[in-house]
C-alpha cells in the first residue's frame, strides 16, 4: 500500500466514524434534546473511550456545528432542486422582467414629482431623505426599491383626474400574472415543508430555540446564505409588486449588505416575507400547536404565499 | 392561631417556595436549556433534599407545566392589555362592523349566482360542494366565510359590463379604512414583541422547539386559547376583507371547532395569519437569525400586518 493509499483509506475510515457519531447525536437530540447532548454518552454507544471520540469532534460545539452544517446543506440542496432556475424557464432572469413589464405601462417616463403623488406622504419623505443623504435623485432611490423608476404601483393615467383610485386599480398586470412562477413559489414552499416534516429535529436545530452557550462559527452563515439566494432567485422571477413602496422597502435600500444578490429592495422584501411566513406556519405546525385545531396547515401556507404574490 | 389561619400561612409559604423553585428553573433553562432541567440540581440550590422538593413539584413535567402556564398567563394578560376592548372604542363589537360596512355597498342583496361570478372558479365549486354537503345554500356558506352574503370583494355594479376588472377595484371601502383598528393591530403586535424580547426563553418555552418527552396537560390549551381569543377580537374589529374567499377560508368554515368565537371564517383566517406571521419574524429575530443582516425587524412586522389589513 502506498502512502497516499493509506492516507485515503484512513480518511474514509475517519469520515465513516464521524458519520456514525453524528447518527448517534441525532438520536440523542430526538430523545433528550440538543441541550442534553453528551459526547461521553455517544462514546459509550459507539464503544469508544471519551478521549478517542474527542479526536473526531473536539467539543460538543464542534459536533453541533457539524450537524447544523449538514442540515443547512441538505436544505440548500432541497431548495435548489425545487426552485426552477430562471435560465430554464420562459421567465427572463432576475431584474429583467420587472423593467420589461413596467415598460408596457404609460408610466415609466413619469417624473420624480409624479412618483411623489403615488406614494404615501411618509414614504415620499423617506425616499427624498435617502436621496438627499446619498446625493442621489428620488428616481434613483425608487429604482433601487422596485427596479423601475416608479414607486410600487405604476402612476396611472387617471391619476391626474380628481377621482381617488385604490392603489392597485391601474396595476399594469393582473396580480397572479404568471402562473408558472406562482406555481414555482408554492412548489418551493412545499418542498421545504416536506423536508422539515421528514425530520422536524433537523429543522428545529437550525431554526428553533437557540442552544444555550453555543455560538455558530462564521462559515455556517455562508451555508445559510445559499438557502436565501435560492429564495431570492425565486422571488426575482415573480411579476413585479403592484403595491406602493413601504417603509421597510425603503429601509432595505440602505440595509441590504447581507446579500450580493442584484435584485431590487422590493424583491429582498418578498424573500424575507416568504421566509418568515413559511417559518411561522411550519414551526408552529411541527411543534404541534395546530394539532388540536385540526385545520390543514398546507392550505394556510398556500394562502400566505399567494397573498405575497398579489402584493 | 386558628386552624384556618395556620392553613393560610402554610399555603402562603408553599406558594412562596414554589415561586422560588420556578425562579431557579428559569435560570437553569437560560443557562443549559429546558432539556437539561434537573429537579435535583434545583433542590441543592434551594437547600432542600430531592424528596422534599418533589412535594412541591411531582415531576420535571409538572414543573415545566407550571412554567408554561405562567408564560401563557403573562402573554394573555399582555395581549388583553394591549388590545383595546371593542366596547370601549367607536368600533362596534365582533361581527357587527362587517355587516354594517357591507350594507353601505349596493351588493348585499346579490343572489347566490352573483356570488359565483365574483369568486374564482375553484372557490365557487368548493362553496357549492360545502353547501350541497351541508344541505345549505351557497349564500349561507358565503355568510359563514365573510359575515356577509357576498364572497370577499362586493359584487361591483360594473361587473355586468364586459370589461374584466381586478377583484379589488370596486371594494366598498379603501383598504386601510379605519386607522384606529389598524393602529390597534400594530399596537398588539408590538406589545407581544416587547413581551417576547423581555424574556426570549419564556417565549421559546411555549413557541420554540418542543421539549422531548414532555406532554402538556389539557388545561394548558385552555390558557393558550385566551391568547387566540384576544387576537380574534382584534381581527373582528378590522374592516372586512376585500379579497375573494380562498380555499383556506372555505376550509375554515368546516374546520373551526378550535374556537367558540362567533367571528366569520375570514376573521379566523386573519387571526391565524397574524399569529403565524408575527411568530415567523419574532422567533427568527429572537434566535438571532437577523443579527448579521442588520435590518430592523420591527419594520418588517409592521409591513406584514399592514399587508394583512389590505387584504
Give a quick rundown of the structure.
The structure is a homodimer of 311-residue chains. The first copy, chain A, has helices at 3-32, 39-45, 50-54, 60-82, 96-103, 112-118, 121-134, 138-146, 179-198, 200-207, 218-236, 247-253, 265-286, 297-310. Chain A has 311 residues and is an all-alpha fold.
State the end-to-end CA separation of chain A. Answer: 65 Å
Gyration radius from CA atoms of chain A, angstroms: 24 Å
Number of helices of chain A: 14
Largest sheet of chain A at a glance? Answer: none
InterPro entries (chains A, B): Homeodomain-like_sf (IPR009057), HTH-type_TetR-like_transc_reg (IPR050109), HTH_TetR (IPR001647), MT1864/Rv1816-like_C (IPR025996), Tet_transcr_reg_TetR-rel_C_sf (IPR036271)
Keywords (chains A, B): DNA-binding, Transcription, Transcription regulation
Protein name (chains A, B): AcrR family transcriptional regulator
GO molecular function (chains A, B): DNA-binding transcription factor activity; transcription cis-regulatory region binding
How would you describe what is shown here?
Chains A, B: It comes from Crossiella cryophila. Chains A, B: Residues 38-57 bind DNA. Chains A, B: Residues 160-180 are annotated as: Disordered. Chains A, B: InterPro entries: Homeodomain-like_sf, HTH-type_TetR-like_transc_reg, HTH_TetR, MT1864/Rv1816-like_C, Tet_transcr_reg_TetR-rel_C_sf. The structure is a homodimer of 311-residue chains. With 311 residues, chain A is mainly α. Chain A has two domains: 3-58, Arc Repressor Mutant, subunit A; 67-311, Orthogonal Bundle (Tetracycline Repressor, domain 2). Chain A has helices at 3-32, 39-45, 50-54, 60-82, 96-103, 112-118, 121-134, 138-146, 179-198, 200-207, 218-236, 247-253, 265-286, 297-310. The model of chain A is unreliable at 86-125 and 151-177 (pLDDT under 50). The interface between A and B is large, with 61 and 61 residues.
Amino acid at each position: 500500500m502506498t502512502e497516499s493509499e493509506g492516507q485515503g483509506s484512513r480518511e474514509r475510515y475517519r469520515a465513516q466514524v464521524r458519520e456514525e457519531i453524528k447518527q448517534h447525536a441525532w438520536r440523542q437530540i430526538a430523545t433528550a434534546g440538543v441541550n442534553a447532548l453528551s459526547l461521553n454518552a455517544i462514546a459509550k454507544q459507539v464503544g469508544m473511550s471519551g478521549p478517542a471520540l474527542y479526536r473526531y469532534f473536539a467539543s460538543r460545539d464542534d459536533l453541533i456545528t457539524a450537524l447544523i452544517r449538514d442540515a443547512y446543506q441538505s436544505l440548500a440542496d432541497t431548495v435548489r432542486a425545487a426552485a426552477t432556475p430562471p435560465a430554464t424557464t420562459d421567465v427572463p432572469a432576475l431584474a429583467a422582467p420587472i423593467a420589461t413589464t413596467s415598460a408596457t405601462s404609460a408610466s415609466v417616463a413619469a417624473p420624480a414629482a409624479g412618483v411623489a403623488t403615488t406614494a404615501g406622504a411618509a414614504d415620499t419623505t423617506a425616499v427624498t431623505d435617502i436621496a438627499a443623504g446619498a446625493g442621489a435623485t428620488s428616481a434613483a432611490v425608487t429604482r433601487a426599491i422596485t427596479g423601475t423608476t416608479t414607486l410600487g404601483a405604476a402612476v396611472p393615467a387617471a391619476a391626474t383626474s380628481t377621482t381617488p383610485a385604490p392603489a392597485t386599480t391601474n396595476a399594469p398586470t393582473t396580480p397572479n400574472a404568471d402562473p408558472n412562477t406562482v406555481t414555482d413559489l408554492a412548489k418551493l414552499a412545499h418542498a421545504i415543508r416536506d423536508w422539515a416534516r421528514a425530520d422536524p429535529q433537523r429543522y428545529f436545530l437550525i431554526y428553533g430555540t437557540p442552544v444555550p452557550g453555543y455560538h455558530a462559527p462564521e462559515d455556517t452563515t455562508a451555508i445559510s446564505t445559499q438557502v436565501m439566494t435560492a429564495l431570492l432567485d425565486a422571488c426575482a422571477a415573480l411579476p413585479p409588486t403592484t403595491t406602493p413602496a413601504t417603509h421597510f422597502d425603503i429601509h432595505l435600500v440602505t440595509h441590504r449588505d447581507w446579500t450580493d444578490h442584484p435584485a431590487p429592495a422590493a424583491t429582498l422584501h418578498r424573500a424575507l416575507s416568504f421566509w418568515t411566513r413559511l417559518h411561522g406556519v411550519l414551526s408552529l405546525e411541527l411543534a404541534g400547536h395546530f394539532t388540536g385545531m385540526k385545520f390543514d396547515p398546507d392550505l394556510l401556507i398556500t394562502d400566505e404565499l399567494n397573498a405575497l404574490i398579489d402584493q
